Amino acid sequence: MNKTENNKAWFLVLPVFLLVAFSAVIPLMTVVNYSVQDIFDQNNAYFVGAEWFREVLRDPRLHDSLLRQFIYSFAVLAIEIPLGIAVALMMPTKGKMASLCLILLAIPLLIPWNVVGTIWQIFGRADIGLFGAALNGLGIDYNYASNPGDAWATVLLIDVWHWTSLVALLCFSGLRAIPEAFYQAAEIDRASKWAVFRYIQLPRLKSVLVIGVLLRFMDSFMIYTEPFVLTGGGPGNSTTFLSQTLTKMAVGQFDLGPAAAFSLVYFLIVLLVSWLFFTTITHMDKAK
Amino acid sequence: MISWMAWTLPVAVFFSVIAFILMCMTVYEVRSPCVERKGFLPIATTRGDRLFIGLLSSAYLHLVFLGLTDLNLWIPLAISVIWLAVILRWG
Asked: What CATH number was assigned to the domain covering residues A60-287?
């Protein structure tokens, strides 16, 4: 049978092409142009080659914030992924309680980042906040405004409080998709709870967990609002992450050239990590 | 109209080369559609995958040269061109 080819369908892609060009390609081209120039104003820009990249890649401030960013993102994953799985495993599977748990888990996800930051800013204060006052009452010297360790713990706690629900909901949906026959077979084999988790539930959760890890990594890697509202990046620079360093450079100091070079390095890191996750997901699908 | 984009000649050349490579790859794909294959890379890849991997690794190679050495950028560029050719052919 002869197949009729109709290339007019390609015109349907045109709106998306234009949208991506306006929202991503043209801004990206502009950033690349800025990254090779010293810009004073609209009419005064001088070509400096790769000088800003050299400066940015050798700047200890940026090394520190990159290191902090990776530690933060890995800490977020190390806490939220096991905790999310544990919450999903403990959730009731049927009845009104299941619906209630789903609603309760979904509530933190509906709260905007800046509101979460403000809630914890007050909640963690030693004088008027319940959390801060309770810790101090227990004899723990907790003060997120002056102690870097406390600031880190609070920023991590905020993210865990805000986003573990997402991992839990993803895992819950993954667990619900496991056919009952698997559990019946495990019961016949008298498999322990651990064996059921290790050989049935965990392998079946792999796909949702990869998506959960990707979402949480990307989101934590671009964290800005919560530490900005809570500590303003302090004490010192202890909670200043990549996006905050970039914002300070671009908007605070108006160093457009170094900021553009820095955002391109940031973009390349995000691109590499996204590609690794994408490749993992597609190869897992193929392996099935 | 595009003065706000602050165009410079090297950046214009860079994006023109990328656009030219993409156009060539599109024409090549239409004339001779590729199939996924396994080369020296640890995963099976299509032609487009190999181009992406080659370009991304070239970008990182440039960053390594910029961050760690004061050598001229023509050196990583030459290495990147050879690397891209190798990865497209045997990757």
From this structure: 1.10.3720.10
